[in-house]
Design goal:
504 residues, mainly beta, 12-stranded mixed beta sheet
Amino acid sequence: MLCFLSLLLLFTLPISLSQPPPPRALLINCGATTQTLISGRLWLPDTDFITTGTPINFTQNVLHPTLSTVRSFPLLPQRKFCYVVPVYRTGKYLVRTRYYYYGGSGSGELPPVFDQIVDGSFWSVVNTTEDYGRGDASYYEGVFRATGKSMSVCLASNVYTTSDPFISGLEFVLLGESLYNSTDFGNSSLRLVARHSFGYNGSMIGYPDDQFDRYWEPYGENTPTVSKGANVSIDGFWNLPPRKVFQTQWTVNQPQSMEIPWPFEPLRSSVYYIALYFAEDTGASSRTFNITINNVTFYDNLRVPPTGVALFANRWPLSGLTKIVLTPASGSTLGPLINGGEIFEVIPVGGRTHTRDLIGLDGLKNGFQNPPFDWNGDPCLPKENSWTGVACSNGSNIRVTGLNLTGMDLSGSLSPNVANLTALSDLWLGNNNLSGSIPDLSTLRMLKTVHLEDNRFNGPFPSSLANIDRLQELYLQSNNLTGQVPSSLKAKLGSNLRVDPQNS
């Protein structure tokens, strides 16, 4: 148990209580074609961030203006559809997706179930069926560290997907560095499970009460006693929960235990980040209590000051239904209290394709006039959702090892950036409409097979291929190349060399 207790920290830090400015955020109204100003915040159409999918407009009334449009994507196994947005490198972002089902293509069709992915890492399964049955929208939140100048949020079908994936809204909110700072964001991200204001039964708390527009749901129904924390004067915490969360509390009048089933849903077996928030509103010095989670000690003899206190663990194992119990300590004359709580699943970062390969593929994509529709997001990860035609290595150093876009009706040119794909063993771009010269491929020392036949390449024969020791097969016929095949290539490849008569 000591290994868990060592993860629990208590903080009281100064914070301004004035109304904060709007958070630094990018708000995307998916499926919309024009900008929309909602509650003083600008929502952008999504056309600058994605090039595929079908925008759909609602005709019925919706809960929020951003829910009147969606972008829908075809049901294609193993393909992902990615929004790519500019971010600050190393910035910590709250990413929120919104979903409000538009009814699909048929009467009575249930919402699809599908995956959402951030960069190369699986985020969560999206299942809006229960909310849809109540006429509600669904939202998902996570906290992620940007590793480059852009981040991608992708949707992909899974084994449960029976109709087209869709999305209503997408938000990127830049967080302060103090938030959730005990998490190793180099190796992990956070998936929100629950965030509640205990003893509160009003509408959802967000901006401007929360300066980062985090959503705090009410947890006020059927509570044993709800009292107002009107006298609370908090000094603040590293996670900067809003003052409004401390204006209500869940407590009992007598020194007796409180049992809190939270979160409501059963949890899969994993490790979780848990933050609990407390503030005393009476000035009492005799309120002391112990905290357990599923009968495991979380903290003993907690005495809550009026300035407030936060307790958190950054890797707490949980599974199934969870129950928090607050029990008065010996000698305490008052019952326990709690104001708020957050719980996130700690999810592993899935890795990232090597930077050289990202540069190489980005150059190829820009050289093609009609690149494959799914060439956005991470090329290799998740492995089951790699880009069309792209093969990758396993392990921690993810490299692009193969490129096969044969017969894809590609037009444009072959970018010199292909030279960055230094782990490439197979380059197959035959039977397309590519033109221009073939760039220098001599840096691709791992190349074994090159198929560029049946295109419209012109210019000199790429004699640099003679310098690639591992090359075993070269097909360049049906192009418009000039010059002769080096004799060393003829001798080395024999019948595995195919070129036009003018080059032989």
